[in-house]
Structures are given as structure tokens and as C-alpha cells.
Amino acid sequence: MNQFATIRRAQRLTGPEKTAILFLCLGEERGSKLMQELKSSEISKITRAITAMGEVQSDIVEEVMREFGQKFSNYGGIVGSVEAARGLLKGFLPEDRVDSILEEIESGVGDNLWEELSKLDEKMFADYLRKEHNQTVAVILAKVTPDAVARVLPLMGEDRTIDIIERMVSIEVLPPDSMAAIEESLRREVLAKAGNNAEAEAEKQLVKVFNKLDTKMFEGIAKQLEKNIPEKIRSIKQKMFVFDDLGKVPANALAKVMREVSGNTLPMALRGAEKEVRDHFLNALPARSRDMLQDEMKAMGPVKSKDVKKAQSDLVEAAVQLAEAGDIELPDEDEGEEMME
């Protein structure tokens, strides 16, 4: 009995599968050199396709090669497998990295349509779903994370939400062809468009990075960036939320932030805080908790600035996560500024 499934219809192949066939035809040496020119995410997709492909008949190989403008009619069949992928990867990656990539694929970790959709901006995701039939929406939402469903459903309207939930409760398994069509549409219509927002995502990432940098280091970097890319750095700075901004967070919300950290994070962060900010934290606590925190701070002795910065960064991250979850609201950049007539 053949241990491999056989691929017989080229029109059912995905882009990564067709690319995988090309790499297998190139062989280990040439395929490895070509893979070095690809991004890690692309390598992962192609490797995943190779490991799961199995046997590919020669007529399918010919049809795929025709798309690349080449003639491989006399090449014969090829076989995709874990070992075939390993042979390609080991030509330019260390052995431990090859093992790591294959372990990720075999365990189902890594590139995943549903994981990527779950991380999307809910407005963008909802815009796509509104165009689809409720049964299709139910199938899609049954695959993404509960957090993503909770963010998207409120944007669908009450009537549609009720119908979608009813369909999710009684959902049936779709035929493979139907599921494949939905997945292809999601990749083309949703993830491809989301990729066009790469600049916005990069900006979000930089906001998080800058929030974690030492203040003096950031000020030095920002000074030069303001000369080179003034508009972009101004936009990033407007989105930044730093430790001192916690001094503007209402007491009840600040109490939630403090409960999110453990150990000596809170006393360490306050040891390096400005008096006004420190007092705001202390006033947000009940008298007994406030006294205990002050005792902890006194007992710490001298502390390193890098430890203070790390603790303050942890508190900022906790506040941002609570805000993203809708548990608290962070102050706006312009809050408290005087309005001019």
C-alpha cells in the first residue's frame, strides 16, 4: 500500500503547493539556493506544502511547470515528504533550525489561516463577513478564536448576530471542496487586503518598542527621526503611552492595572516614579494596601534604573492590554489641553 496520498488535479492545488512542486523539481542543491532568497514565512508555507504533499503524478507536474513557462514533460513524478523538505532546508539552514521548522509544521504550529484571521482588526473582518451569507459567517466564526468572535459579532448587528449564533450551534461539517473555497476566498479577500496595512502594523509595533526603551535612549533616537521622518515619528509619538501617563488614569482603572502585576513589580516601578505619579498610585489603594506598599518600597534599598524601567514597562503593558480588552479606558493624547477659540 502506498504510504503517500496522490495528487491528481492541478486546479485544486494552492499557490504554496505549486511552488513546492517547483522546488522539488529543482532538486536539493538548486532548490536550497533559491529558498535562501525567500522570507521565513514563505519558507514555512512551502515546507508545510512539501511535507504534506505526497505523490504528485507526472501530468500534474507538467501542468504546474507550464504555469512557470517551462517544459518538464520528461521529468516524471515527484514525491513530497518530510525528508524531501529536510533535504531542501539543510542546504542553507543549521540542523537545529531545520528540526525546529519541521517540528512546528508537524505539531500544527506556525502559518495558520484561522490564527491570522483571529488577529485581524475586527472592523476589517466584519466588513468582509457582512457580504457573506450567515451560514458562511457561522462556519468562519466557528474556526477563529473566541476572542475574535466576541470582537466581531457586536459589529454584525443584533438580528444577524442571533441568526449566526443559532447556525453556529447546529453547524455541520462542510465538504472539503466547499471549505477549501471559503479558505481561498478569505486569503484573497481578507488577508491579502490586510497585508496592505503593513505600514500601520509596523507603526503599532514601533509604538510598543518605543514604550519599552529607556527614556534617554528614546529621546536621542526621536530627535534624529524627527529630522528624517517628522510626520511618521509624530504619529508614533501621539500613539505612545508611557508610565507617566498612568498618572492620568482614573483610580478605579489604575487599581485594575496594579492587580495585573505581581512580585515586586509595583514597588519597583514606583521607586523610580515622579512624586505626583507615585502619589496618584498610592491614593488609588485602600489605606492598608497603601501602607504595605510603602513599607515594601522602603525595604527595597537601592535599585537599578534598568529594573525600575522594566517594572514600569510591565505596568504600561498591563494597562494597554486591559484597554485593548475593553476593561479600562486610557486617557486621550489631547485630554486636559486647553481649547482655543
TrEMBL record:
A GO cellular component annotation in the UniProt record: plasma membrane
Location of the Flagellar motor switch protein FliG N-terminal domain: 13-112
GO molecular function: cytoskeletal motor activity
InterPro entries: Flg_Motor_Flig, Flg_Motor_Flig_C, FliG_a-hlx, FliG_M, FliG_N
Domain Flagellar motor switch protein FliG C-terminal: 224-330
Membrane among keywords: yes
Entry membrane topology: Peripheral membrane protein
Flagellar motor switch protein FliG middle domain location: 124-193
Subcellular localization, as worded in the UniProt entry: Bacterial flagellum basal body; Cell membrane
Location, primary (coarse class): other
GO biological process, one term: bacterial-type flagellum-dependent cell motility
Keyword terms of this UniProt record: Bacterial flagellum, Cell membrane, Cell projection, Chemotaxis, Cilium, Flagellar rotation, Flagellum, Membrane
Database matches in Pfam families: FliG_C, FliG_M, FliG_N
Family designation: Belongs to the FliG family.
Biological role: FliG is one of three proteins (FliG, FliN, FliM) that forms the rotor-mounted switch complex (C ring), located at the base of the basal body. This complex interacts with the CheY and CheZ chemotaxis proteins, in addition to contacting components of the motor that determine the direction of flagellar rotation.
Protein name: Flagellar motor switch protein FliG
